[in-house]
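At this stage, I put together one protein's amino acid sequence and its backbone structure tokens, which the following lines show:
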Amino acid sequence: MQLNFLWRWAIVELTATSTTPHLDAELLIADALGLTRAQLYSQPEAQCLSADQQRSIQDIVKRRKNGEPMAYLRGEQEFWSLTLKVDERVLIPRPETELLVELLLKHCPPQKNIKLAELGTGSGAIALALASERPNWKIVASDFSVEALQLASENLQRHGLSNVELRHGDWFQVFGTYEYFDVIVSNPPYLGWGDPHLSSELSLAFEPKTALIAGKNGLEDLEKIIQQARAYLPQSGQLFLEHGSEQASMVTQLFKKYGYQAIQSYADLAGHLRVTSGKWH
């Protein structure tokens, strides 16, 4: 079978479930054949595929048709200026999470030797993005999942960053009694058990539920972090949290409940209030 026929088939197959069927087909076919996108376009009509190549392309296209995320199928995802390895062990880094990186770079003086902790690092996206921009910062990134930390370690080695320390444990269990951080940041689970996104977004079915769901209303882990972070923040230490697009007011109330000041919420590029911060006094 010639490549151009299978290429057309792939686009048709993906049209129902993907918003970018042409791009998805192009990337998946190129990966399956071990080609660059430029090579794929060089002589598409002249490339005859073997039976194994046809099966490989058909299999991966069917997986995409069934909703499996492109990042898992391709094994990588772009975040900030980094290409990160990702798979089913971790959540896929989202573009809106880059807001956390932007805010931290903006609010923390670049010349200051910041000590920062990231809770629930997953693939290491936030910690590695910050480390790449601020090599003078000391960053501790933790996760309760050993498998997630293995992947974060691979990404750390891939980018040759030496200012990130990975620790295994649940939230603040990884820190010493008198260990303090200028900044604590987290993108914790914030979906509730019955959140409509869990049934409406096909890709979420493939991502680890422990990294998505936090109790009945999605606030369980957010409140736990806000409450417990106080023991690890010095005077005027800051806590930055990503949360759901409709949770800003509830998260703000939690910051107030536990005595934080200078509380602010920030909108992502879509105009949704996605991050809230507060200072501990």
